Every structure is written in C-alpha cells, then in structure tokens.
Amino acid sequence: MNFLRDIPPLRSIPYALDAALYNHVRLALLRIGNPLELELEKLGIDMVLEKACWVGYHEQQISLPLIAWEGFDSGRSALDTPVGCTMHLYHQHSWLQMPKILTAMDEELQLRLTTK
Description:
Blueprint: E1 11-17, H1 19-31, E2 36-40, E3 45-49, E4 53-58, E5 65-70, E6 83-89, H2 94-115
Antiparallel strand pairs: 1-6, 2-3, 3-4, 4-5, 5-6
C-alpha cells in the first residue's frame, strides 16, 4: 500500500485495536492469503488487508481510501493485549463509520475462517 503515502489523510491519530480483531485478521492473512480483499456489502465498503496495513475504500470511489490502519505495534506481551497503531482518516465522516467497519470486517473474517 505504498500509494497511501501519496494521499495525505485529513487526520492521523493513535488508536488501540481490540486484540481479538487483530488476531482474527492475522490468522486470516496466514490461512486465506495475503493480501486479503473483503467486500462489506451492507456498508458499501471494500477492505484490503495486508500484514502492515488495512485500508477501507468506498465501493464507488475505489481509487480513494476512506480509512486506514498501519504501524501495528507487534511487540505485545500477550495475545489479549490491545494492539497500538495509527489510524488515518481520509474522509470527514470516516470516524463515524469506523466502529461499523471494524465490526463488519470481523464478522466477514470469522465467516471466512469457519468455512476455510
């Protein structure tokens, strides 16, 4: 996702990801493939997950990111410890959609992991 460096976010903030969500993404990347593309149909968002970066795009504007997480702190002491990262907001309303995006992404990952 090097092209993200060319698109300045409206805001970048430190964020702590839930450990279970981070673990599901890492497991899916190992079992299903890296990178992993998810279509969150209810939200109209496409997610591209990689080890170093997760990016959400609006379906109709796939060339422009909506939200991204990167810089994951992989030096945690336990699997149930939240994972620090940097969240980049590329749209003025992406902060409001962020909880729904993470929930839908986790549901889709769990579905794919149980069917694999």
